[in-house]
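Known limitations

Files may contain more than one protein. Parsers should not assume a single record per file. Below, a two-record file is shown to illustrate correct handling: read the sequence, read the token line, then continue until end of file.
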Amino acid sequence: MEMPRPTPHHARLAAFVGEWRGEEILHPSPWAPERKTASGRFSARIGVDGMFLITEYEEAREGAVFFRGHGVYGYDPHRERYTMFWFDSMGMSPRPTFGTWEGDTLTFENSHDHGRSRYVYAFEGPDAYTFKIFAAPPEGEWALFMEGRYRRVAPPA
């Protein structure tokens, strides 16, 4: 059996490779009733023989790291969908999250015990993107939970 090779879909994830910094707004939610601001840092690289994008994330509030995350992104050729597995300081087990890439926007959605989540990465050229998280109760409307605007500060290695 021949080992699978990365497809053009896998290669597209390289758009995230590098070091990114940005400012974030956390909108009122059940987790935080007041609007807050934060600074975000992402570091991203391609790993596992080109099959996955691996990211490290830190969110700082008032000058101190408040939240950390680790993301693993790929492409499932059988489902014809992008995949995201996210691990973070909240300690929850990651659920598979599936998405599509249309134009310059990569969108993921999943369902979980508390409702639904949508994650939207919209590129604004090769060195800038916006990221938004929307949340909804199981049968409710989407609400903007978090938004950030990031710029690449270090090119891919």
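...continuing to the second record:
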Amino acid sequence: MTSRKFYVFQVCQTFEASEVNAVLLPCFASHTFREEIQEEIGIPVLDMMAALRMHVDHVAERGTTLGIMASDYVRHSGLFERYFGTDFKLVYPNDNEQSRLMGAMYGVNGIKDGFLDGGHLICGDLQRRGVRALDINEIYAAFATLEKGQSTRPPFKLGIVGGVGPAATVDFMGKVVAHTPAGRDQEHLKMVVEQNPQIPDRTANLLYDETDPTMAMYATCKRLESAGANAIAIPCNTAHAFVERIQTHLSVPIVNMLTETVEAIVQRYGAGKTVGLLATSGTIKSQVYHEAARRAGLQIITPGVDYQVLVMESIYGDHGIKAGFTEGICKDQLLIAAEHLCELGADVLILGCTELPLVLEHSESYMIKNHEVALVDPTTILALKCIELARENTVKPISR
């Protein structure tokens, strides 16, 4: 049956690539794993058993005895019990008759070999006895034409532009997992990641006009789009300076981490707070946080020149976060710059580079010398927003 599963999946993939609207799977055996296929396909694989149940509910009362003629495999899979067992009495042929049925289907001169003579005689005999023989192909085809017959959409899939930087990507994914209200593996988000550390440095482009990362970011987003992502997250603050020029060429949204961060600050602390920004010089030069803050009525302040050098050293230095350090010199440098912003009047500090939360965690109240300040981690805000989007866009399947 594994080979059959793979074959059905590959054919469904081909249909999806051809942009068909739905797939019909007229095979009871294949319906024993239809849900497994549906989880991996972005178009509906219509449920033949749901079609049959809908029809039976229309033509028979609950408690009616249903006779089932099916292969040994389908019979023992419990497929019919899942859909009918609680409301109807199911009966199958005895062992001798089941053996004859299997021979009629799969034996020499059987139906599978194309010998159809005699089938109408069996149906006629059933009809004379008052037993209705249901034509599943007709029922399934009619079901496919009904709007309510369409399958639910597949689970939400989050695309992640990774490698900007690599450790920050892992940190972001960990936060998505940690904040998802899940009681089992299957309740977590689907994620597809393009871990591409070869994307040119965003700060180097913004400050020194080095290689433009736009093409590499766009290509990465398109690959995520092709992989079925419903939304894209970029766990890199500086990269958001390039989002606007990319978004118009994508069919799925990029969740804007900066906008979500600013909105979260306004909702939690109000619009009257002074907000300090700890970020790369590229992010500061791009003014992307400043623009988002202005729209929300927030005032953004940034470190003075000497203190901004410390921020950059804490990120890019030989003992910086991108070099794998989270304690020692890099943390001391970051705290000096943070204290400087507190002295300038900051009530809230944005950890505006996704490497910074590897050193300082999101906190409602954090003491820096004599200053109490809130630390806001945009990576956490982004993770929470992506979880919210997933919950809004995922329809739970009906349990059977």
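Parsers that stop after the first record will miss the second one. For reference, the second record is described as follows. The two ends are 22 Å apart (CA to CA).
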